[in-house]
Automatic annotation (TrEMBL), chain A:
Phylogenetic lineage: Eukaryota, Fungi, Dikarya, Ascomycota, Saccharomycotina
Bias type Acidic residues, positions: 611-621
Species: Myxozyma melibiosi
Keyword Zinc among UniProt keywords: yes
Transmembrane portions of the chain: none
Name this polypeptide is given: Ubiquitin-activating enzyme E1-like
Alphabetized Gene3D superfamilies for the sequence: Ubiquitin activating enzymes (Uba3). Chain: B, domain 2 (1.10.10.520), Ubiquitin-activating enzyme E1, inactive adenylation domain, subdomain 1 (3.50.50.80), Ubiquitin-like 2 activating enzyme e1b. Chain: B, domain 3 (3.10.290.20)
Residue spans of biased composition, Basic and acidic residues class: 556-567
Pathway membership: Protein modification; protein sumoylation
Domain THIF-type NAD/FAD binding fold: from-to ranges: 8-424
Disordered as annotated region, ranges: 555-621
SUPFAM superfamilies to which the protein is assigned, alphabetical: Activating enzymes of the ubiquitin-like proteins (SSF69572)
Keywords: ATP-binding, Metal-binding, Nucleotide-binding, Ubl conjugation pathway, Zinc
TrEMBL record, chain B:
Protein name (Swiss-Prot/TrEMBL): NEDD8-activating enzyme E1 regulatory subunit
Gene3D superfamilies, per database record: NAD(P)-binding Rossmann-like Domain
Pathway: Protein modification; protein neddylation
Keyword Kinase annotated: no
Function: Regulatory subunit of the dimeric UBA3-ULA1 E1 enzyme.
Record PANTHER family: NEDD8-ACTIVATING ENZYME E1 REGULATORY SUBUNIT (PTHR10953:SF29), UBIQUITIN-ACTIVATING ENZYME E1 (PTHR10953)
UniProt keyword annotations, A-Z: Ubl conjugation pathway
Length: 621, 541
């Protein structure tokens, strides 16, 4: 028998389809390694893989295409190199890049028969979901957490898309809880990691970009937010002492004394809460010296054990020492970078001990100030790093299932395509279900989509409204035009003279058109229309010299009749409504405003935290 | 103010420094912890037949650091092998499969020590039973029953788990054969055990010492909800002749009673109390599966060779009969999340912990007595082991296996179950019968069905064999579904499909990790996967 005889025999007619298939694999991590191996051995004709990530030691317990010698190298490139040895007939193309890069355009997506998601975060999954819907390419999504996992097929207009149901998003906390009134260890950990660490060593901007913080200003918190801005200003001043021996002391006094004293002056906040107790630097320092924690060597030994819960003095010593370590690293980086325009920064990494020590000690010190339970470094690693367990076995099961579904899609046998959940006994090990139909109210797949080529430097919003929306697509002026922000509505026409470039619309941007006209007969308006913008050069302009080309007039159906939103409140269980209203910034693909949802389980044992993990996004209790 | 997560009885104080190995295994240590990892690192797994499914199973065991593995096989690598097995390549062709697969697997992780042996099927028979003693677990891929049954008997007697895997085309089968498997760390969702219906004196003193009316608004909002429940439960009982709220209406009324106490808008603790009413009004009992284990003969009639598990179970059984337990299991000492100020949270924590330690000490001293009476050292069971056993005593698992012989002998087979399942639409039992028929076919013909030019005859023969098997169980026919499954089997010609073998390797390794670490609940004892329907079934056969 010759090679691939069995595959031919077992797969029958599907075999030719597989051999001619062109697959895009997004993500080369835990599931990605398994998937690539399966695709290569099944004889898929052409596989492109995209991953921006590099290889870390903690990947090696499952990402078997990588070895120690590959640490810090590109996952995509190494995966390609290792896997191609096993079937030289498969054409493998690897990109060490972000799938959101403009090079991966809609037309590029269109060139694939199937997209397979092996991603580790919600944001990118949503993006790929939209790209697949726009390009009308079937997608298989998969994810695992510990012993559990899931896999499903998404086909535009046929099945649910990735966002048809509200997606559990990473938990976010109101900024005042984090900055002013923490009440749980996680609040202090988020403060240390997303606020203090970034202020000292990271990007020099306010926390609007940290997804864990929600700093919506309301009438209630205006006063507090003003205070917080003062804090930020003061901290910037402390940073002038960066790299000096005084620096750890100045930071300590600033965040555990001066800021706390200021908080105490907000008497109202402490009417029903325990007021915080500021820490005194010299007293704690003396205690640390007396405890013998006076040399770096001793502190290093202390910090190396991640099991015990450190006391005040121990946290203090690790705090001061880790600040010195991180400052030295940053100074070194800055010297190496010289006068380059991009200033080097440090990024929190749960596997980077210097950053983890800092976050552990800073979080615990803040917990002590607020009378909150302190945690061990091991526990804080898990809570701060959003670590969830990951092993080869579950990834292997999920990837195997993905390929069985890929066979079905390539065989046009969607009827039998499935979604499958993997769970642990005593429950069924694999629960397969037929794919639910698309949710007609879905703001992602229940809308019309079109691509428009534009010259962003020429096309103004006014022209876009008049020439495209009104004359070509038959809208009235009662529309809203939205990207990550509102560009136009009937009461806001300030931007009409501006070009797309001036409005921040460029290649790969999404623009949503919402029909705001209410027909007098009470019939529903048209569904939203989402354009993906493709930038084109001058010479492609059409005869009239218009700065746009609309290849196809999209069909924009009427909105389905609204149904009542089911919402229920049970014993301690807050069930989020099944059909959430989608806000403009959610539609745009800009995820700074996360769905805020909370779910506590009925017995109150544990707060549910939704997190992203290395091999998939999932919900853990 | 405090919102604390589940708090466990303190860990042992052994100093622990994070090593490169811990970092590499970090993501899995969070599933099975250092003790699970240690068990894995001590294990030696042997694979019989270097197939794709077998190699994938080992891959998933080598990656997490299983101590050693051995690949046993007698074939030379062919092109078809390379096509389906990721752990063979063009250069392996013509070389022994066992050596090549072991070599490729070894590259995955140097912490794992790989070996290989060349043994033919006929040689297995002649092996001295002691040959198997060096292995902690045996994985067998597609070994014909006449060879496998005697091996399974030897392993059964030696209490070495045997995991049988089969992968043909879109179908896969997994069977775990082990006489007894006990699990202490079953990883239940929660080990919280509050005892609000039967508080012990220290807990009562703490709760009833709180004068709600006299508290400031701030203190009132920080009374732990456990204390609130105890206070209002007492109020209720006093007004209802000593009985707790039991009906739905009464529980609703009880919630209303708690609500009357709310003072400020920021009464998260009262919300917590109201949301936990169902638990507070539930009677603390010994779960029936735990009770069955405590009553088991193996616990009640100890012998010098009894395993630690049953000695511990006996000690717990004695504890539940002692006056100091009040008929309950040892307290886990785990406290749930709650809003409380630090002082009262710590106080409450120490009340639960002291009680847990007290119970644990009783059990520990009973364990020492039992060990001595069995002529074993009093410290043969460590205090950590006693701790863990007490903590999970509500969730103990004993899995009494069925031997392969029992499954394959018509008089002891689960005939009724099999025949019943075969009646179901699209039943996966048809795939099970298919695997059994293929085994017999291979045994008789020394080849797999579908590997000759003229396959119609193979299909007919396979169907006759299936009828023999069904007939031996009391059935009368091979139904349409089974016939179409058999046809598929013939079409596959005994070949593996990589992604199905890979999936089976994932499922098998997952169960093997559970067996070796003795953590989590393993599957009992057969699973069938059908890659056409993407569905699976689990049965005890
Ligand atoms: Zn949708």
């Amino acid at each position: 028998m010759s090679r691939d005889t069995y595959a031919k025999q077992i797969l029958g007619d599907a075999y030719e389809n597989i051999k001619n298939a062109k697959i895009l694999m997004v993500g080369a991590g835990g599931i990605g390694c398994e998937l690539l191996k399966n695709l290569v051995l099944a004889g898929f004709g052409e596989v492109h893989l995209v991953d921006l990530d590099t290889i870390d030691l903690s990947n090696l317990n499952r990402q078997f295409l990588f070895g120690h010698e590959h640490i810090k190298k590109s996952k995509a490139l190494v995966a390609k190199e290792t896997a191609s040895k096993f079937n030289p007939e498969v054409n493998l193309v690897a990109y060490h890049a972000n799938i959101k890069d403009p090079q991966f355009s809609v037309s590029w997506f269109k060139s694939f028969d199937l997209v397979m998601n092996a991603l580790d975060n919600l944001d990118t999954r949503r993006y790929v979901n939209r790209m697949c819907l726009t390009a009308n390419v079937p997608m298989i999504d998969s994810g695992t957490t510990g012993y559990n996992g899931q896999m499903r097929v998404v086909v535009k207009g046929v099945t649910e898309c990735y966002e048809c149901n509200p997606i559990e998003t990473p938990k976010s906390f109101p900024v005042c809880t984090i900055r002013t009134t923490p009440s749980q260890p996680i609040h202090c950990i988020v403060w240390a990691k997303s606020y203090l660490f970034n202020q000292l060593f990271g990007i020099d901007e306010d926390e609007a970009t940290a997804p864990e913080l929600d700093n919506t200003e309301t009438a209630d918190n205006a006063e507090e937010l003003k205070n917080l801005r003062t804090e930020n200003e003061e901290l910037k001043k402390v940073k002038d002492a960066f790299g000096t021996l005084e620096f750890p002391k100045l930071v300590f006094e600033k965040v555990f004394k001066i800021d706390i004293d200021r908080l105490l002056s907000l008497a109202d906040a402490w009417r029903t809460r325990r007021p915080p107790v500021p820490l005194d630097y010299s007293a704690v320092k003396t205690a640390a010296d007396e405890a013998g924690l006076d040399s770096q060597k001793k502190v290093t030994m202390l910090a190396a054990d991640d099991q015990p819960i450190w006391n005040l003095v121990e946290n203090f010593a690790v705090f001061a020492d880790s600040i010195s370590r991180l400052s030295n690293r940053l100074v070194e980086l800055q010297q190496e970078a010289g006068s380059q325009s991009k200033k080097p920064i440090l990024v929190f990494d749960k596997d980077d001990d210097d950053t983890l020590d800092f976050v552990t000690a800073a979080a615990n010190l803040r917990s002590i100030v607020f009378g909150i339970e302190t945690k061990s470094k091991f526990e804080i690693k898990q809570m701060s790093g959003n670590i969830i367990p990951a092993i080869a076995t579950t990834n292997a099961i999920v990837a195997g299932l993905c390929v069985t579904q890929a066979f079905k899609i390539l065989n046009n046998d969607l009827e039998h395509a499935k979604m499958v959940y993997i769970s642990q006994p005593p429950a069924r090990m694999l629960s397969a279900g037929t794919l639910p139909p698309a949710n007609v109210h879905c703001g992602v797949c229940g809308i019309a989509r079109a691509a428009i080529s534009v010259d962003p430097e020429k096309l103004t919003l006014g022209d876009f409204l008049e020439k495209v929306l009104k004359s070509k697509l038959g809208y009235s002026e009662e529309v809203s035009i939205v990207t990550s922000k509102l560009l136009y509505d009937i009461e806001f026409d300030d931007n009409l003279e501006k070009t797309f470039v001036e409005l921040g619309v460029s290649d790969g941007s999404f623009i949503t058109i919402m029909d705001e006209e209410e027909p007098e007969d009470g019939s529903p308006g048209r569904v939203n229309l989402e354009f993906i913008v493709l930038a084109k050069g001058d010479k492609n302009g059409d005869a009239e010299g218009d700065a746009y080309v609309l290849d196809q007039i999209p069909e924009i159906p009427k909105k389905p009749k609204a149904e009542k939103e089911p919402a229920s409140e049970d014993e301690g269980m807050i069930v989020a409504s099944a059909a959430p209203k989608r806000k403009a910034d959610e539609i745009s693909g800009d995820d700074t405003n996360l769905n805020k949802k909370s779910k506590t389980d009925g017995n109150g044992d544990s707060a549910t935290i939704v997190i992203d993990d290395e091999d998939g996004a999932f919900l853990i209790d | 103010m405090q919102k604390a997560g589940e708090t466990d009885v303190p860990r042992s104080a052994t100093p622990h420094v994070v090593s490169a190995r811990d970092r590499k295994y970090d993501r899995q240590l969070r599933l099975w912890a250092a003790n699970g990892q240690a068990a894995l690192e001590e294990a030696h797994v042997v694979l019989l037949t270097a197939s794709a499914a077998g190699a994938e199973t080992l891959k998933n065991l080598v990656l997490p650091g299983t101590g050693s593995f051995t690949v046993v096989d007698d074939k030379l690598t062919t092109e078809e092998d390379v096509d389906v097995n990721f752990f063979l390549d063009e250069s392996s062709i013509g070389h022994p499969r066992a050596a090549k697969v072991a070599e490729f697997l070894q590259e995955l992780n140097t912490d794992s020590v790989g070996r290989f042996e060349s043994l033919t099927l006929s040689e297995f028979d002649k092996l001295d039973p002691s040959y198997w003693e060096k292995y902690s677990l045996v994985v067998a891929h597609q070994i014909r029953p006449s060879v496998l049954l005697p091996i399974s008997k030897v392993l059964w007697d030696k209490k070495i788990p045997l995991v049988i895997i089969n992968s043909i085309g879109f179908y896969a089968r997994l069977r775990i054969v082990t006489p007894e498997h006990t699990v202490v760390e079953s990883h239940p969702e929660s080990t919280v055990d509050l005892r609000l219906d039967c508080p012990w004196p220290e807990l009562e003193r703490f709760a009833f010492g709180i004068e709600l009316d006299g508290l400031s608004e701030m203190d009132h909002a920080h009374v732990p909800y456990l204390a609130l429940l105890l206070i209002y439960l007492k109020q209720w009982k006093d007004a209802h002749g000593g009985s707790p709220p039991s009906t739905y209406a009464e529980k609703k009324e009880f919630k209303a009673l708690i609500k009357t106490g709310v003072r400020s808008s920021d009464a998260e603790n009262f919300d917590e109390a109201i949301n936990t009413v169902w638990r507070a009004t539930q009677a603390t009992t010994i779960p029936s599966n735990s009770q069955a284990i405590l009553n088991d003969d193996r616990a009640q009639n100890l012998s010098p060779s009894t395993s630690k598990f049953w000695i511990l179970a006996r000690a717990i059984s004695d504890f539940t009969k002692s006056p100091s337990s009040g008929g309950h299991l040892p307290l886990s000492g785990t406290l749930p999340d709650m809003k409380a100020d630090t002082t009262s949270y710590i106080k409450l924590q120490s009340i639960y912990r002291s009680k847990a330690l007290e119970d644990r000490d009783w059990v520990a001293s009973r364990v020492s007595e039992l060990l001595l009476s069995l002529g074993r050292p009093a410290d043969a069971i460590s205090s950590d082991e006693v701790d863990t056993f007490c903590k999970f005593s509500r969730n103990l698992v004993v899995f009494d296996g069925r031997s392969l012989e029992e499954e394959y002998t018509p008089s002891t087979a689960r005939a009724k179950k099999i025949l019943q399942e075969l009646e179901e639409e699209n039943s996966l039992m048809s795939v099970y019968v298919g695997f059994r028929a293929v085994e017999v076919f291979e045994e008789r013909e020394k080849r797999y069905p579908g590997t000759v030019e003229e396959v119609d005859e193979d299909e007919k023969v396979l169907k006759e064999i299936a009828l023999e098997i069904v007939g031996s169980l009391g059935g009368t026919e091979v139904n349409e579904r089974t016939a179409s499954v058999l046809k598929e089997f013939v079409r596959y010609g005994g070949g593996e499909l990589h992604n199905i073998s890979s999936l089976l390797g994932g499922i098998a390794a997952q169960e093997i990790v559970k067996l070796i670490t003795r953590q989590y609940v393993p599957m009992t004892n057969t699973t069938i996967f059908d890659g056409i329907q993407s569905s699976s079934a689990v049965w005890e056969l």
